[in-house]
Amino acid sequence: MIRCATSSCVILVGGFGRSVGTLAGHPRALAEVGGRPFLDVPIREASRRGFPQVLLLAGDPAVGVVEYANSLRRAKTFPVDVDVAVAPEPLGSAGAIANAAERLEDEFLLLDGESWFDFNWLDLRQVGTRRPETRITLALRRHAGPGRYDAVDLRDGRVREFTPKAVEQENLVGAGVYWCRRSAVGDVSPRDSLASDMLPRLAAAGHVAGWSMTVSLSMSAFRKNWDERKRQSRRHSDGRQLFSTGTALLIRMLVISIASRTCAGFRAPRRRSNS
After folding, report:
1. Could you tell me if residue 272 is inside a domain?
2. pLDDT tens across 13-23, in order?
3. Which of 156, 160, 218, 234 has the smallest C-beta neighbourhood within 10 Å, fewest atoms?
4. Alpha helices of 114-245 — where are they, by DSSP H?
5. How many domains does the chain contain in total?
């Protein structure tokens, strides 16, 4: 197991803003995929990458998230310390990060708990440290067709701005993985959104870097199938969660993982030798 430069991996679990949905009272990050909560996937990868601590940022409802973290600790499912920071009031996604600022290290990895994009997360730190003014570094992917993602204007490794994505074009969009400095949340208001407020503001000030992956795959089959799972759930009056597409989602995630590792040009940035 590789030890990383920080011990802090932070995961936005749900309950912040309009983009987050729930099913049967639980954040969709806890939806079952292959018989286990989806959150197992990023937590397992965080453990594999050498993060000894994982902090889950939970909004409303948070009961399921707390119960999930407690079950991991009791069963010792992963060799990491999983804790939960519960928002004391309705917050935006950026506001939730700022609310947990005292529990964050100077640098930390931030993940969207509803998405999966497979690469070596630690490579983002190498990209971000190339410029001392960088406060947050985004993993970027290519996406074509309709979607809720803003297009990212990336030039010379610097994110210049975020713009509404044209449906007919392929654009760079965020992949839900960020390497952050704690100073990035210094000017955040409680209701601020990460995507709509915090990132555009930091980009305008020249504090956002980006790393474009050469993989043109959807990072979140999970989100694509969310509406279908929700419709299936509503058809059952007893309120049970039925995720009949769980196995298909797991297979698709594995395909994305394998393809991203074998796609031409998908390599980590290398440090130049001083010799």
Report:
1. no
2. 976 644 444 45
3. 156
4. 123-128, 199-204, 221-224, 226-234
5. 1
184 is written with which tokens?
Answer: 């990035």
**Mean pLDDT value across residues 35-59:** 93
Q: How far apart are CA 109 and CA 122, in angstroms?
A: 8
CATH of the domain at 217: 3.90.550.10
Neighbouring CB atoms inside 10 A of 271's CB total 7
Which spans in the chain are helix H? Answer: 40-48, 63-75, 93-99, 123-128, 199-204, 221-224, 226-234, 246-262
pLDDT at 61: 67
Of 212, 211, 188, nearest to 199 by C-alpha is 188
Average pLDDT over residues 9-32: 70
pTM for the predicted model, two decimal places = 0.77
Q: Which of 122-131, 179-188, 191-200 has the lowest mean pLDDT?
A: 122-131
d(CA 24, CA 261) in angstroms, rounded, equals: 35
Structure tokens at 200: 């555009």
Contacts of 102 (CB under 8 A, 6+ apart): none
Q: Identify whether 16 is part of a domain.
A: yes
Residue 270 lies in a domain: no
The range of the structural domain enclosing residue 234 comes to 8-262
Residue 126: C-alpha distances to residues 4, 227, 270 (Å): 12, 37, 8
For residue 119, the number of C-alpha atoms closer than 13 Å in the C-beta half-sphere is 30
pLDDT band at 42 (very low <50, low <70, confident <90, very high): very high
